[in-house]
Amino acid sequence: MLTPIFEINSTDFNNAWAQAVQNCLKGPEITFGDAKNPKIAKDTIQTISLTGNAIFQVESGEIHPLYPFKNIKQYCEEFTWKYLEVYNKMPESDKFSYLYYERLKQYAELNDLVEGGTWDQLWVMQGQLADQIRNKISSNRTQAITWYVHDQESEASPCLRSIWLRYIGNNEADVHFSWRSRDCFGAWQSNLIALVNMLYDEVLDPNNCLIKRIVDFNDSLHIYNYDWPAAMKVVSNPFLEGR
């Protein structure tokens, strides 16, 4: 069965999440993952566009009252150079399969993994945005990626594929995120808050630039079966008053 496709355009970050949750619960039940660790979820394809006050809410870390993950500030710290320095000194047994910030800040091609070289994609994005502002010419090349080819065979490949940014004038930028897989109920709001916070620190603030719009593309936005009861509470009381 094909998963349904939904599009959300919202000026309220919390309403957008509530609507995305509602959409997910309309999706078919699927089993995915692998034979060792099958996962059951209701699945959708969703594109979510945020503008206006929704941008301010993301920047401020304002989450829906029923959003389950509350340690937003601590999670944002994982997207900083200070955290990465500590993380790099940890024993391999204590590390995660990947960190988004590590892939974005210390990206390494296959041959570089042997030689020890890395590529700071966020620093490059900062410079490319500066060029767009200075030249008053937009570009479609300003992006950062998380995937390596060998991630196709990994049991824990990055859910986030890429970040794309384009200058649109008036010291404002259009920001797009592309995801292969996404937990709508437990990760969607915190993911966006942390990534946007990182972009301001690394790319936007150094260029005195603001986000005008966020577009979030999700090939698989889903809710796991163990979260269905809690998600139903969001559906029964879905929308906050827009501000």
Which terms summarize this structure?
243 residues; globular; alpha/beta; Thymidylate Synthase, Chain A; 8-stranded mixed beta sheet; 9 helices
CATH class: Alpha Beta
Number of domain units = 1
Give the CATH architecture: 2-Layer Sandwich
Radius of gyration: 18 Å
Percent of residues in helices: 25-40%
Number of strands: 8
**Distance, first to last CA:** 38 Å
Tell me, rounded to a whole number, the average pLDDT.
92
- At the fold tier of CATH, the topology name is Thymidylate Synthase, Chain A
Brief summary:
The chain is α/β, with parallel strands linked by helices. Helices cover about 40% and strands about 25% of the residues.
Q: What would your notes on this structure say?
A:
It is a single chain. The chain is of the alpha/beta class and 243 residues long. It has one domain: Thymidylate synthase/dCMP hydroxymethylase domain (Thymidylate Synthase, Chain A), CATH 3.30.572.10. It is 38% helix and 26% strand. The chain contains nine helices and eight strands. Strands 1, 2, 3, 4, 5, 6, 7 and 8 form an eight-stranded mixed β-sheet that branches. Strand 5 and strand 6 form a beta hairpin. Helix 1 packs antiparallel against helix 8, helix 1 crosses helix 9 and helix 7 crosses helix 8. The longest helix has 21 residues. The chain starts with a strand and ends in a 7-residue tail after the last helix. 34% of the residues are buried. The model has no long low-confidence stretch (mean pLDDT 92).
